[in-house]
Design brief:
Blueprint lengths: L15 H5 L6 H10 L4 H10 L3 H7 L4 H10 L4 H20 L4 H8 L11 H4 L3 H15 L5
């Protein structure tokens, strides 16, 4: 491992890498994977691990059905799609950890309008990186007992 590589921590907690089915040695490996485009299979793996529909996750990262079909044929997502998918997976991992790994409860929470998010579903908020951060902030508030 190079001195600049940051090791990825492996625990029982969910992470973006675990949700996506990636086995990486460092955060540098994750960045390189994003730049090269993640395998489209990561989308299916994430959906299976979190209990949300592939098509719903694909839509969030900007893939309509025709574009998703093209990515499946090519086998890879673009760098921008990969980056958004990793951001989305990180947010989903935060929710799954909030609910102690219960994917059904986390999935239900993701599709239920949240007063903390202006009565928008957390899933709708994750259409942008900024929205992902807003959902993660709301999760952090819930973890600390702040229910506003």
């Amino acid at each position: 491992m190079k001195k600049s590589d940051t090791p990825i921590q492996h625990t029982d907690r969910w992470s973006a890498e675990r949700l996506l089915g990636l086995e990486l040695q460092s955060s540098n490996d994750l960045v390189a994977s994003i730049i090269g485009g993640l395998p489209v299979e990561c989308l299916k793996t994430c959906a299976a691990n979190c209990g949300l529909a592939v098509e719903g996750l694909a839509s969030i990262v900007g893939l309509n059905p025709a574009k998703l079909a093209r990515r499946r044929a090519k086998g890879r997502l673009t760098s921008a799609e990969s980056d958004h998918l990793v951001s989305l997976a990180n947010t989903i991992a935060c929710a799954m950890n909030l609910f102690s790994g219960d994917k059904e409860t986390a999935a239900e929470w993701f599709i239920t309008p949240s007063p903390a998010l202006g009565n928008i579903t957390p899933l709708q908020m994750t259409r942008t990186h900024t929205g992902c951060r807003a959902v993660e902030t709301a999760i952090g508030r819930l973890e600390h007992g702040v229910f506003s």
